[in-house]
Design goal:
This protein is α/β, with parallel strands linked by helices and 141 residues long. It is built from seven helices and seven strands, in the order E-H-H-E-E-H-E-E-E-H-H-H-H-E. The strands form two sheets. It has a four-stranded mixed sheet with strand order 6-5-4-7, covered by helices on one side. The model has no long low-confidence stretch (mean pLDDT 95).
Length: 141
């Protein structure tokens, strides 16, 4: 793998940033640590493969409940639009909490698989857009 030394990156920080933004991501090595530096646009493209999917249930009162498959989040609204908006808000709120407590959440075995969805939501940073992109399937009550 092509690795740039952290010392070189530090000494040429401005040029490295320009290169990452305008050319390609960089792989960086610092002693035993290895990392990757890229633009948010590249990260967003990589995360395109991760979709937010939900089970949609129509309740007896006509309201709509959406249950997110990728994380344990459930929201109910008077209609699907409201449920999507609420679930988009819940996803973004959880993503911010996860990021703020990253060390704890990322080490939890049942939450580790949330990482790509967390970063996708944080990059989008728009709860309405997240709600609109939900792929819903009909479920049973």
């Amino acid at each position: 793998m092509i690795m740039e030394q952290a010392t070189t990156v530090r000494n040429e920080w401005s040029a490295v940033c320009d290169s990452v933004i305008h050319e390609k991501p960089k792989f960086i090595k610092r002693t035993r640590d290895k990392m990757w530096l890229s633009s948010l646009e590249i990260m967003s493209e990589i995360l395109e493969a991760y979709d937010f999917t939900a089970i949609r249930c129509i309740e007896e009162d006509g309201s709509v409940t959406l249950s997110l498959n990728e994380m344990d989040l459930i929201e109910n609204g008077t209609d699907e639009h409201e449920a999507r908006l609420k679930l988009g808000e819940a996803i973004l709120e959880y993503s911010l909490e996860y990021y703020n407590e990253y060390e704890m959440y990322s080490r939890s075995l049942n939450r580790r698989k949330h990482i790509p969805y967390i970063f996708k939501a944080l990059i989008i940073d728009d709860s309405e857009k997240i709600g609109d992109m939900l792929q819903c399937q009909d479920g049973k009550n």
